[in-house]
């Protein structure tokens, strides 16, 4: 029997197959969080008299046993069981009889799946944060290693001013901090407790929602029970928007690698074992890893819009449409984590070419340096600008190749330590160590 099924009612097998969809496949990922939510809920039920102390002890013993099965990869959702919530309750009832049936008091499947999704999203977002930090570390380290290796800077894809690999790597490192900030915004939306909102209208039982909030390590609760249900979809959209932002950063980096690796630019070298060949051209070393990174991350930019379309025109309250959000959100976490790992691996092994700007074709990169020379000699900037333009026009221009950039964030002052310190502060703001410590107490 389903959690929602009444006596003497049967749902068409065809309808059941359609409505369950991929839920059993997706719900495996929610299993550990469903157990944590059950332990917190049962603990709360005992404090308000809906479970005895013996009931709670028995339930916690069995729930911890299920948790161990999940961690060992032995947990399955059996054939004919429509979701993880039903499977866990079934296991409890098999072992404990009526005690297992009591655990659903004061709860709806709506707030049960919602708390699972909040816990799942919170945990996966921090996985993304950790993977982003690893990519950041590679970029930051490479920035320092190549601080003196100059690189042409471009605007409008025209050579503009001298840059450096130190600046290039460092720019993407700092860009990841903004992505971390967006991940934190999504994390905070996931970090609120909906448990106790029931089907969206609360319960006549004297539930202690603050207790489950504390037990599950949430920052706070969704106070209004209607809004608790309305937060479903909004949380997923925020998470996917943060992932899309991060994907955009990686996509742009991948595009630069494709461009800089080409013979026409020739700024970097990808080792042979990071490239693929051509079936007809023996000279080819294709940057497929960067191209696929670009494609995968570009595709992720569309994910927030998928959620938007699923949620379009929905009134308040719960709707089964929201079930489909799992199919958008869950694979996205795996995809972005894979892309972050490959991006870090690619950059770690990528080689940069030195002395690029010694080539006379880059002489014009130093035109601003020539203008600044004249300004320092007392020539008004506008006159200096015109003079250098005339020198370039009549062929008398000579590139002054000595660079004197010293201000914050320039070639000669990358501010790497300041960027690292800012990243550390933003990651510390998640407070995830405290969350893990709180959750560990539930399963000890």
From TrEMBL:
Gene3D superfamilies associated with the record: Fumarase/aspartase (C-terminal domain), Fumarase/aspartase (Central domain), Fumarase/aspartase (N-terminal domain)
The organism's taxonomic lineage, starting at the top: Bacteria, Pseudomonadati, Bacteroidota, Cytophagia, Cytophagales
Compartments (UniProt record): Cytoplasm
Broadest EC class assigned to this enzyme: lyase
UniProt xrefs under InterPro entries: Argininosuccinate_lyase, Fumarase/histidase_N, Fumarate_lyase_CS, Fumarate_lyase_fam, Fumarate_lyase_N, L-Aspartase-like
Single Gene Ontology BP annotation: L-arginine biosynthetic process via ornithine
Substrates-to-products reaction catalysed: 2-(N(omega)-L-arginino)succinate = fumarate + L-arginine
Keyword presence, Transit peptide: no
Pathway: Amino-acid biosynthesis; L-arginine biosynthesis; L-arginine from L-ornithine and carbamoyl phosphate: step 3/3
Chief location category: cytoplasm
UniProt KW keywords: Amino-acid biosynthesis, Arginine biosynthesis, Cytoplasm, Lyase
One Gene Ontology molecular-function label: argininosuccinate lyase activity
Species annotation: Dyadobacter fermentans (strain ATCC 700827 / DSM 18053 / CIP 107007 / KCTC 52180 / NS114)
Alphabetical list of NCBIfam families matching this protein: argH
Family listed: Belongs to the lyase 1 family. Argininosuccinate lyase subfamily.
GO CC field: cytosol
PROSITE patterns: FUMARATE_LYASES (PS00163)
UniProt protein name: Argininosuccinate lyase
Superkingdom of origin: Bacteria
The enzyme's E.C. designation: 4.3.2.1
């Amino acid at each position: 029997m389903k959690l929602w099924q009444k006596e003497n009612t049967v749902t068409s097998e065809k309808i059941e197959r359609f409505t369950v969809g991929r839920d059993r496949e997706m719900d495996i990922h929610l299993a550990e969080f469903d157990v944590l939510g059950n332990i917190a809920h049962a603990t709360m039920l005992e404090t308000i008299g809906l479970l005895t102390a013996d009931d709670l002890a028995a339930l916690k013993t069995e729930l911890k046993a299920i948790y161990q099965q999940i961690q060992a990869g032995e947990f399955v959702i059996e054939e004919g069981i429509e979701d993880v919530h039903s499977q866990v309750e079934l296991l409890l009832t098999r072992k404990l009889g009526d005690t297992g049936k009591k655990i659903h008091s004061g709860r709806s499947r709506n707030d049960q799946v919602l708390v699972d999704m909040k816990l799942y999203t919170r945990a996966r977002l921090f996985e993304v944060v950790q993977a982003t930090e690893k990519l950041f570390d590679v970029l930051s380290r490479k920035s320092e290693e190549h601080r003196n290796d100059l690189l042409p800077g471009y605007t409008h894809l025209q050579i503009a001013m001298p840059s450096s690999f130190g600046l290039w790597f460092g720019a993407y490192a700092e860009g990841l901090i903004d992505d971390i900030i967006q991940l934190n915004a999504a994390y905070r939306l996931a970090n609120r407790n909906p448990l106790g909102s029931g089907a969206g209208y609360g319960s006549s039982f004297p539930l202690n929602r603050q207790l489950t909030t504390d037990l599950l390590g949430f920052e706070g609760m969704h106070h209004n029970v209607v809004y608790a249900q309305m937060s479903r979809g909004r949380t997923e959209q925020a998470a996917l928007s943060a992932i899309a932002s991060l994907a955009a950063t990686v996509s742009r980096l991948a595009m630069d690698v494709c461009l800089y690796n080409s013979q026409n630019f020739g700024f970097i070298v990808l080792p042979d074992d990071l490239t693929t060949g051509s079936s007809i051209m023996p000279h080819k070393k294709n940057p497929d890893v960067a191209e696929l990174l670009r494609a995968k991350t570009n595709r992720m930019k569309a994910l927030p819009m998928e959620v938007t379309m699923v949620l379009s025109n929905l009134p308040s309250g719960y709707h089964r449409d929201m079930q489909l959000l799992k199919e958008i959100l869950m694979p996205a976490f795996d995809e972005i984590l894979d892309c972050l790992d490959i991006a870090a691996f690619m950059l770690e092994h990528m080689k940069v070419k030195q002395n690029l700007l010694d080539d006379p074709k880059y002489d014009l990169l130093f035109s601003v340096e020539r203008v600044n020379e004249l300004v320092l000699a007392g020539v008004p900037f506008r006159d200096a600008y015109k003079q250098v333009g005339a020198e370039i026009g009549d062929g008398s221009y000579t590139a002054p190749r000595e660079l004197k950039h010293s201000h914050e964030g320039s070639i000669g002052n990358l501010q790497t330590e300041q960027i690292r310190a800012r990243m550390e502060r933003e990651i510390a703001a998640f407070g995830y160590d405290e969350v893990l410590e709180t959750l560990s107490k539930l399963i000890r």
